[in-house]
Amino acid sequence: MKAPRRLITVVAIAAATVTVLTGCVFKGSPDQASPGPSRTPVTDGVSEDLMPFYGQELEWESCKGADSGSYDCTTVRAPRDWNDPSAGEIELAVVRRAAGSGDALGSLLVNPGGPGASGYDLIADSARFAVGSVLADAYDVIGFDPRGVGRSSAVACFDAAGTDAYFFDIPAAPRGTPEWEAELTARNEQFAAACDENSGGILPFITTEFAARDMDLLRAVLGDEKLNYLGYSYGTFLGATYAKLYPENVGRLVLDGAIDPSVSSLDVSATQAVGFESALRAFMAACLEEEDCPFRGSVDDAMTDLGTLLASVDASPLPASDGRRLGADSLMTAIIAALYSQDNWPILRQALSQTLAGDPQTAFLLADFYYARTPDGQYSDNSSEAFRAYNCMDYPVENDPEAEAASKARLAVEAPTVAPYWEGVDACAVWPYPPTGTRGEITADGAAPIVVVGTTNDPATPYEWSESLADQLASGVLVTREGEGHTGFQKGNSCVDDAVEAFFIDDTVPEDGLVCR
C-alpha cells in the first residue's frame, strides 16, 4: 500500500520508548474528588445554528491520571457534519489536568499526531511527560480524541482476528505480480467495507478540516478566547488547518515535526521513504560501533546485508510462537517503528540480531507496538483504522503514471533498502467515499506568531517540511533541532525546550531561524 496511507504517523511519538516497554497506565474510572470548575463558553459571533454546540455547558467528573495531578473528564457534543449542523451529532472525549500552579494561564490543547493517535491517553498517561513540568504547571493541559479516534465517536472496522489477518497475513502470490496486487486490493475492499458497516455512518466526516472545526468548539466550551495548542507530527497539519480556518482565534501555537500541507501524497511517500533510509543509515553507523551489532563492515555493507535479510524473510517468512509469520512487510514495520526515536535503537539491534538467527519475536514486538496490538492479540486502540479514514478523505486521488515512475526511480537511488517494501497497492483507491481534502500552501494570514519546530534527521516528517511550513505561514517562526528522531520538544535539547516554554509562558517569540545544536 502507498506510504501516505500507512506511514505518516506518530504512534504516541513523544512517549514511544516508554510505551513500547510499559504500555498505558491510565485508569479511566471516576475518582471521589470534586471535579474542576467549568468556565463560561465563549459564544461571541457564533451563528444560531451552531449555538447548541458552542453554548453547551460541560459536565466534568473527576478521573484518575497516571500521576498525582487533578484530572477531570467530560464529553463534548459536536456536529457530525459541520456543513449541516442539524444532521446529527458526534461525541468528543476530553480529559483535563488542572494547572499544577493552581492559577492556569488558560487551556493548552495537545495532539500527538497520527492521524489516529489518542490525545486523551497521551495526557492521561502523564501530562508532565507529554508537555513538560513547566507547561503542566502553567496550563490546564487538555487531551482529546479527535473525531473518529479512541473514546470519541470512533471508526471501527475488523475484529481482532480480522485485523491480525489484514496486517500480518502474507499474500500467496509473489510480490509485485498482478496476482499479488489483486489479493491486496481484495483485502483493502473487505477492510473498507467493514469500516463503512461498523462506524455508524461517520466515515465521510472524518476529515482534518472537521477535526480543526472541532478544536475551535473545544476552545470555546473550555472558555478560552484564543486557542493555545501543541501539535506533534500530523498534529501540525491539524494546527495549521485550524490557523487557516480561524486565524483570529490563534493564541500560542507550536507545531513540532511538521507536515507540509502543499505536498502531494506521492511526494509525501517518496520524501518519507528517503527520510527513513537516512535514519536507518544513522542507526547503522551507531550500530557498527556496538559489540552486539549483528552487522559488520561499512554502513554500505550493513545496509546491503539488511537488504539481504529483508529479501530472505520475504521469500521464506519466519514462524512465530503465536502462529504468525514474519515477512518483509512486518519486518519493515518493526524497523520503522523503532526509528522514530534514537532511544529505541538498542531494541532494534536486538530485533535484527534475533531475526538473523531465525527468531522473529522482538521484531513482532516492535510491529505490534506500531499497530497497538497487545500480547493477548487484541488491539488497544483504533489508531490504524482512524489513520486510514483520515488519509483517505484528506488526500486527493492521484493518477499520474509519469509522476509515479519518477518517484519510483528516485526511491531506487535515494532509498534502495526501504524502496522494495514501500510502494504498493493504494488502499484508498477502494475507500467507500471520495476524498474531500485539498493540498495547498497554508498562510493563515492575520494569525499571531506560530512556532514551527523541525529536527534535521527526522525520519517521519523530514526537516524540509518544517522549513516549508514555516515559510508558508505568514507569521511562521522556525526553530531547528539538530539531531535524530521524530519531533524536537521534550527530547533532551534545552535550547528547544526553553524556546517553546518561553513562548507559551511569556509570549516570547523565538528568533526566526534559531538553531539548537
Brief sketch in words of this structure:
The chain is an alpha/beta fold and 517 residues long. The protein has 17 helices and 12 strands. It has a domain at 3-154 and 204-262 and 439-516: Alpha/Beta hydrolase fold, catalytic domain (Rossmann fold), CATH 3.40.50.1820.
Task: Report the count of strand segments.
Answer: 12
β-strand percent reads 5-15%
Q: Structural class, judged by helices and strands? A: alpha/beta
Helix-strand topology string: HHEEEEHHEHHHEHEHHEEHHHHHEHEHE
What is the averaged pLDDT score? 92
Order of strands across the main sheet: 1-2-3-5-4-6-7-10-11-12
Could you give the distance between the termini? 37 Å
Q: What topology does this entry show?
A:
Layout: H1 16-22, H2 51-54, E1 61-62, E2 71-79, E3 89-97, E4 107-111, H3 119-131, H4 133-138, E5 140-144, H5 160-168, H6 178-198, H7 208-221, E6 227-232, H8 234-245, E7 250-256, H9 265-287, H10 299-315, E8 318-319, E9 325-326, H11 328-339, H12 345-356, H13 361-371, H14 383-394, H15 401-414, E10 450-457, H16 463-472, E11 476-484, H17 494-506, E12 514-516
Parallel strand pairs: 4-5, 4-6, 6-7, 7-10, 10-11, 11-12
Antiparallel strand pairs: 1-2, 2-3, 3-5, 8-9
